[in-house]
Write a structure and sequence with these properties.
heterodimer; A: alpha/beta; Rossmann fold; Alpha-Beta Plaits; 2 domains; six-stranded mixed β-sheet; four-stranded antiparallel β-sheet; B: mainly alpha
Chain lengths: 324, 253
């Protein structure tokens, strides 16, 4: 992979000092996203993801530090010539149709009449907008709006796509469609920077992730490097376990549920799980399913929250959270 | 090109927002007003219809300029439609100028239609229309150029309601700035006299754009005065738009 940074932030900071919001939304954020990679920007609600994205897209001005796209500072509109942006909940001019909307954004990108028509044909084909080309956007569902938002982000075929929670609020079909679109853009060699808190999306799509917590970058790297890889617990489903064996199993693990002639137990270590399995098989039971439990992104965030609270008690975190 | 795209879009938005219904209201006021006045005035009805039409253009135009203008930038931020616009290679000044020009184009169209409609109506009633009627209409537009610029400035600073109240006050007060210079004798020697006189020179004087009585009564108006008023309107508007750009330049959206 080419390792030229297409997006870079250097000590990027946003501090609010108004009555409604006070403190650091983003603090001293430095990271790089290389050309051609898919970078997941993770964090809980209010971690500062949207604030960071807004600074990159020129919507918010940094209090200090800088962000660069292709080496050009993001406060300069020219940095956005090669940028496509999809906000968390895209808002459009309700009185326009998809065709008019795409033409409008093409004009803002500086495309001429012929290029605008070509761009409309390309994007309407890619996102299946032909049948709704002349219907006003005010009549559209969430999924359709997300599609239009994605089409706007792709206007001018930019090399860098910034997607803020692109799958938020979509049904499974809509999520799948957006995931496929991201995958498609990845295959075309586009750089994609997207924020999310859904592990499955991140795992499927991202080359690297950055984790933001209370406005600070707390980890970067591959998702597997970020999450603890140790097996935390083991869940086992048994069939036909003798009643006499139940006290033995309950002593070693936690009974999660029983149904028909099945029982599901959770064991804290592989060793105890193995002992239980051996005893059960010896007594005629069958192991139906064995699932090792590793740390999930949700677990990771919970772990981070505990650390943050400990730090806060010690006074190491001195800023208050700003709602995004 | 980008300014034009924003302007076209603003124009289209206003048209689709049914702002042009104000034309029907204008037509209704002029026709009903002229009928009513026709009963109480003898031989003066054409003059009164001309007067009523020019006053109507000014009032209805100002309503569009104030109510649409003060929400122009604010609405984009409030409805978050601005997110995907600012994320384009678009300078913020291009956005403000585009919004301003889009609304101006609409107001120009509205004033043009109003002046055409009223001129045709006056001719039908047997009156005469000369080019001064259209010059007076154009000066109404020049006044609205300034009111729109002021409205756009407040749309970058405050909520539409507050902005509309402030601009409306400017509009009303701007028609009566003469009182600041024609102060009673009690003001002689007091500190308030230079302050009020200073305000007279700083605040835009909307009454300057009003050549209605002269046109209606056939009193000559010099072209040099018309030119001076056009320059006056353009300079003031440019100043207010410049302030609006300064306000919007570093605004978090």
């Amino acid at each position: 992979m080419n390792t030229i940074a297409i997006l870079k932030t250097v000590s990027l900071t946003k501090k609010y000092s108004s009555i409604s919001a006070r403190g650091y939304a983003v603090q001293d954020l430095s990271f790089e996203v290389n050309k051609g990679e898919v970078f997941g920007f993770l964090g809980r609600n209010g971690a500062g993801k949207t604030t960071t994205i807004k600074m990159i897209c020129g919507l918010l001005l940094p209090t200090s530090g800088n962000a660069y796209i292709n080496g050009c500072e993001t406060v300069d509109p020219n940095s956005r010539r090669n940028l496509g942006y999809l906000p968390e909940q895209p808002y459009f001019y309700e009185y326009l149709t998809p065709r008019e909307t795409i033409h409008f954004y093409c004009k803002l990108k500086g495309l001429n009449v012929k290029e605008r028509e070509q761009e409309w044909l390309r994007l309407s084909g890619l996102l299946g907008l032909e049948s709704i080309a002349d219907i006003r956007l005010k009549n559209f569902s969430k999924g359709m709006r997300q599609k239009i938002g994605f089409a706007i982000a792709l206007v001018g075929n930019p090399d860098l796509l910034i997607l803020d929670e692109p799958m938020s609020g979509l049904d499974p079909v809509g999520r799948k469609h957006i995931r496929e679109l991201i995958q498609q853009q990845k295959e075309l060699g586009k750089t994609i920077f997207f924020s999310s808190h859904v592990l499955s999306d991140v795992e499927q799509l991202c080359d690297r992730v950055g984790v933001l917590s209370r406005g600070k970058l707390v980890a970067t790297g591959h998702i597997k490097d970020v999450l603890q890889q140790d097996i935390r617990q083991v869940e086992v489903v048994f069939k036909d376990v003798a009643v006499s064996l139940m006290p033995f199993l309950k002593q070693r693990g936690t009974l999660l549920r029983t149904w028909e002639n099945y029982v599901q137990f959770q064991f804290d270590t592989i060793l105890t799980a193995n002992q239980a399995i051996a005893e059960c098989i010896h007594n005629g039971a069958v192991v139906i399913e064995l699932t090792p439990q590793k740390e999930t992104l949700e677990d990771y965030f919970m772990r981070m929250q505990i650390i943050e609270e400990q730090q806060k008690k010690k006074g190491e975190i001195y800023y208050s959270r700003v709602e995004e | 090109m980008r300014i034009l795209a924003v302007a076209q879009n603003t124009f289209r938005e206003s048209v689709r927002d049914k702002v042009l219904y104000v034309l029907l209201l204008f037509a209704g006021v002029v026709i009903i007003g002229s009928k009513a006045i026709g009963w109480i005035s003898i031989g003066q009805d054409i003059k009164i219809i001309k007067d009523l039409s020019l006053a109507g253009m000014s009032i209805f135009g100002a309503l569009i300029a104030i109510f649409v203008g003060t929400s122009l930038v604010y609405k984009e931020i409030d409805k978050k439609t601005i997110y995907t616009i600012i994320a384009q290679p678009l300078h913020r000044y291009e956005f403000v100028i585009g919004k301003y020009l889009g609304l101006l184009a609409l107001i120009f169209g509205v004033i043009l239609l109003m002046s055409m409609m009223s001129a045709i109506y006056i001719v039908i009633l047997g009156g005469e229309i000369n080019h001064w009627y259209f010059i007076a209409s154009f000066l109404v537009f020049m006044k609205l150029l300034l009111v729109t610029a002021l409205s756009v400035l407040f749309s970058t600073l405050s909520s539409p309601i507050l902005g509309a109240i402030i601009v409306f006050c400017f509009y009303v007060f701007g028609h009566a700035t003469g009182v600041l210079i024609d102060l009673p004798r009690q003001f002689e020697g007091s500190w308030s006299k230079p302050v009020l006189e200073g305000l007279y020179y700083v605040l835009p004087n909307f009454a300057n754009f009003d050549i209605r009585s002269e046109v209606v009564n056939g009193v000559p108006v010099s072209y040099s005065y018309v030119t001076y008023i056009i320059i006056y309107g353009v300079l003031y508007s440019t100043f207010f738009i410049y302030l609006a750009i300064l306000m919007f330049q570093r605004k978090d959206v």
